[in-house]
Amino acid sequence: MKNIAYLTLFALVSGCAVGPDYRQPAIDTPQAFSGLPKDAQAAVLDDAWWRAFGDPVLDAYVDEALRNNRDLAIALANVEAAAGQLTTASAALYPQLGYQLNGQRGVTSTQRLAGDSSSSDSYQFLGNASWEIDLWGGLRRQREAAKAQLAASEQARRGVLLSVTGTVVQGYLQLRGLDRQLEITRRTAQSYEETVKLFELQFRYGAVARINVEQVKSQYQQALSAIPPLEASIAQSENALSLLLGRNPGPIKRGKDIDALTLPQVPAALPSSLLTQRPDILEAERQLVAANAQIGVARAQFFPTISLTGNAGNVSLALSDLFKGGTSIWGVGAAVAGTVFSGGSTLGQVRSAEAKKRAAEQTYLKTVQQAFADVENALSQYSADGRKLASEVALTRSSKEYADLAWLQYDGGLAPYLTVLDARRQLYAAEISQAQARTSQLGDAAKLYLVFGGTWVDRAAMLNTPPPAR
């Protein structure tokens, strides 16, 4: 017993554990992002950036999604499940206490052989304790792994918060862009319809040829045929946004027109800051920490387990005498158990854990590099779409001038109606392209906040925090 006491004392004061301690892998981090504009600001990553669009309806939708989105509810439940696993892993480090109450009536074999057939009673109450001494640190590594898994689940939830926020914003912007395209298409179709009526009237009086009437009708039908696909896309976008908000599919209330929305400030950050801001990077690192700890859990199986047990209680032939003096019983014990031969099972578990750690490390490094690429790609796309929008605005302006002049020349007999049709087709295409470019530019601005991450995710998490249970 004295030796067991010494081992117990050693286990309590020893802080070492089998298996490697975690070290962050070396990362080749760029000095800066090449596509950042000079007016970019880092401070905007701390705020609720979606409010910068200046649309209260959009703000309300983001708040609603953060409260009611189903994926967020699943992510929160996963965090709570991981917290439960950590509690379970931590409990293994402490003594386990229990109790047992037994009552028995019967005739023993000894009584029967002696010719005594009378029954006898016995009652027993025992309190018991057991403790597995974590001498090699396997249980501590198990707790370390569970703690890392909990942290990974929390980062996964932050990743869902980031994704849901971005998807709601981009979905709403896409919807407003489709609304603008539908408005342009309907206005164009109405213009053709009015021209058809005018030309049919002129044809009756011989002012225009039949070919001119059919040309206008052809353009009118083309414009009409573009409306149903847009209406279907709008309905699908409304349904998708409704699901993000935790609603059943249905119509969505609109706020400001797409041209009235404010373009948010371009965010800025150093590449090294992504390591502490992006939820996917933080999640991958926590998974790496957990995989590293599992190596220690596997290696601890090479060593014997040492357990202490004890019990104390009372025994009596009558229930009324169970807790009276002179009925107490007690016992203590110690056990050492280990494996002599397992056919390589333990070695296989260690090798498997080491391989999983290597895979987790490569996943982490890949996630970091992908994050750097995401930022560079988003900055490049934002810049390109900004230049494209400027060109589309200029094209729409010149196309409008061309269409007006073509009609004046046709009305004055200086140009055929084909010139008018060509000008109108060009104007319609330019207006649609401008609406698409405006939608893309606003969506690119939203994506910049998603690829940079930032403390705004924690602000969103506060909106998603459920009320305390009563």
Automatic annotation (TrEMBL):
<keyword id="KW-1134">Transmembrane beta strand</keyword>
<comment type="similarity">
    <text>Belongs to the outer membrane factor (OMF) (TC 1.B.17) family.</text>
</comment>
<keyword id="KW-0449">Lipoprotein</keyword>
<keyword id="KW-0472">Membrane</keyword>
<protein>
    <submittedName>
        <fullName>Efflux transporter outer membrane subunit</fullName>
    </submittedName>
</protein>
<dbReference type="InterPro" id="IPR010131">
    <property type="entry name" value="MdtP/NodT-like"/>
</dbReference>
<keyword id="KW-0564">Palmitate</keyword>
<dbReference type="GO" id="GO:0015562">
    <property type="term" value="F:efflux transmembrane transporter activity"/>
</dbReference>
<dbReference type="GO" id="GO:0005886">
    <property type="term" value="C:plasma membrane"/>
</dbReference>
<keyword id="KW-0812">Transmembrane</keyword>
<dbReference type="Pfam" id="PF02321">
    <property type="entry name" value="OEP"/>
</dbReference>
<dbReference type="InterPro" id="IPR003423">
    <property type="entry name" value="OMP_efflux"/>
</dbReference>
